[in-house]
Structures are given as structure tokens and as C-alpha cells.
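Possible race condition, two jobs.
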Amino acid sequence: MNATEIALLGLTCFLTSSLTAMIGFGGGTILIGVMLLFLPPAAAIPFHGLVQLISNGWRVTLFRHHIDWRIAWRFALLLPFGVSIGLWFLQGLSAAMIQILIGLFVLFALVSRQLKGLRQKDLPLWAFIPLGLVVGVLNMMVGVVAPLLGVLVVRREMVKEAVIGTMGFLATSGHLVKVAAFMLAGFSFRPYLPALAVMVPAVMLGGVTGKWLLGHFNENIFRVLFQLVLLFLSMKLIIWEGLLKLWP
């Protein structure tokens, strides 16, 4: 990557990290789209995982007092096994088709939560154990599964800071195991050290900026914005990342 590309990625990191610290997700989906302009998928997915590990790890530090640990430890329990399965089990499947399925699930969950009988239903805590396994598998194939987590993690009693902190921990766990798996498989991050020197300060500054902006949202505005971003990302997964790539 040349200096212009690195500068563009640094700016993107700042903006996407700010968005994620405000909403809880969304930034990673945008960032990997920009990375794919300059890198092949085989390099973009592990490099994106490392950048997101740093970004979300910093978000966990900023929101550490708000993390819902009932969800966090259950999610992390089977996550490494899911990543191990994903390394070899899904290599022959279509990433575009998986993106479509995730997008459809997010869309279905958004719509179902507006139905009278399901509006007050939260995902049972035990369900986060198998969810960690599933996310580990999917994360190795498509790189970004935050929209799937976003629609499942939010609970009625959660304040916005708890949503951001808990989402940050789940994302950090996923990216930590994923980066370790890619390194064990022989991927080297050494060629990307110059880019990291720009992108790491950018994501940290973005995290601080996003947390400051979050403090100026009330809970109702946050919930509406959260659902709007989920709706946008679900349509992006279905149409842009899925159908258009499958179209001959």
C-alpha cells in the first residue's frame, strides 16, 4: 500500500471507530469494504481482524464498567471451537450466500421484534453459548458478523453504554481468536506494520470521539438509530454483499 492508501485507511478507521463507539457496530462492515479496494480478500480479512481487535479492545477499555458479563462469558465459552471449525469446514461455501442469510436473519429479527407477541422477548442467556460457536464459524468466512450480534444482544434493561460495552467485548473475543487462528495458519502481519502505525492511533481517537458523542444521545434516540443502522446493514448484506456478487 502506498502513502495515499494508508492515509485513506487511517481516515476510514477514525470515522468507523467513532460510529462503532456510538452505535455498537457498523464500522467494521464499512472498513472491510474499503480495505477490499486495496487488498485481496485473503489478506483483507485477517488484516481487518487485527485492526478490529485493536479498535474493539480499546472500546472495551472505554466501556469496561458497563459490560454485561452474564452474556460475555457465555458467548466466549465455545467461540474458539467455532473458529477452529470455520478454518476448514466452510472454505468451500459461498461467502455471498452466507452474507445473504445473515442479512435476512437480521431483517427478520428486526421485523419480528415489532410484533406484539415478540416485542418484549429477549434472547435467553443460555442461547449465547451456542451463539458463540456459530459466530466463530461465520467470522472466519465473512469477516463481519456484528449485525447478527447487534440484533440479538440488546435487552430491555440495557442502557446504551451497556450495549456498546458488551458488543465491544463480544467483537474483541471473536477477533482475538480469529487473528490467532490466522497466525497459526501462517499469515504474517509484518507487511502491514506501516499501515498499522497510522490506523491504530486513528481507531483510538475515533473510540474516544464516539464515546463523547454517545453521551449526548438519550436512550430513545439511541434505540432508533441502532435499529436504523441494523436495517441499513441488513440490506447491504443482502443486496450489495450477496445478490450482486452472485449475479452472473
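Job #2 (started ~2 s after job #1):
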Amino acid sequence: MKFQGMPRIKICCISSREEAELAIDYGAAALGLVAAMPSGPGVIGEALIREIAAIVPPGVATFLLTSRQDVREIIEQHHYCRTNTIQICDRLLTGTYQELQEALPGIKLVQVIHVTGEESIAEAVAVSSQVDAILLDSGNQTLPTKELGGTGRVHDWSISRQIREAISIPLFLAGGLNSENVQQAITTVQPFGLDICSSVRTDGKLDQAKLSQFFQKVYSLHN
């Protein structure tokens, strides 16, 4: 499904209340709060996730990034963290999306698909009827230490485009996006949303100049 207008921007790896406020000030429509992961940047404690989620104003999505693959564990984690969205960064092994939806009414479910090749198209299509959005990233679940995001790598956007055309729910694009390539990414994939982390940071902290440059690149494409 093609979405018109400027893509929503999600700033991931938010590490403090101050970073959350800064991202929102620049126009972030969503914040990513990263719980325990096998690898990658931005992991914070669940108590801090809960604290940040509680101060985010209505209208801004708070994503709990979980690596858990058991529905009961995800429900328990969410009951504590209390975000309005769950980003499932790995494949569910135990339980179903329907069980999640029934246990957590009103909470949006976003499934990450790590684009590794043409097989990712069928994976995305198969899950798209069971979740609220798909997020395409550049991880690798087959490595001895799984990569579930935050790699800074760009994947094959032609596959991302095929996925976007094949599904009827919103699609977020992640993986190596920065101010230099974001306009090409938008033109090629035409996603509902963009997900960024490292490209708007310096020494791990949100950088106002980089945030401004990124948002300006996106805005200029839609003016």
C-alpha cells in the first residue's frame, strides 16, 4: 500500500527523558525504546522505558523493542513498560499475534522483517494480516549472536519496495538511513515511516545538528 504525504519519522534508541523531548521537539512521530537485545545499540532498562513512555504526549507513538519470542513473556514485559506500541524484533515462536491483541487491547503491534533476500517478501506478506505495521530492517537472525537491528547497514530497497506494494498495512523503513540517502530511500520505497538511530547521533547521543539536517532533507522532498 502506498501512503501519501511525508513519512512519519521514528527516532530509535532513545536513552533518556531529555532525548525523548528533543526528538519530539524536532518532529518525531514515534520513539523507539530498546529492551534487552542479543546485540546492537541503545539498550536501556525496563524501568527507564516505563519512565520515558509515561511522559510522552498523546499523539507520539512509544515503541517497546522486544527480542522476546514467547507471547506470554512479551505480555508480561509490556504490562511493566506500558508503551502504546510493541515492536517485535524477532519471529514469534510461542503463542500468536491474536493472543497478544486479546491480552493488550489498543496496543499496536509492529513486526520487524529483516530483509535478507527475496524470501523476505513472502515472510512479510504472511504476517501482514496479523499486525498493524511492518518494519523492514537489516538484521540477521541466523548469526550465532543474532542481529535484530541497529546495524547501520542498508538493505536492498528494491525488495523493500516490492514488500510495500504487496501489503496493505503501513510499512516503516529502517537500516542505514541518513541525511545523504533518505531522499532516495523515500523515492524508491515510498514508506509510511522512517526509522533512524545512529545517523542522528554523535558519540551515542542525539545530535541536534544531525537531527535538523535529517528532518530538513525529508521536509524538502515534500514541500
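The chain has one domain: 8-221.
Logs attached separately.
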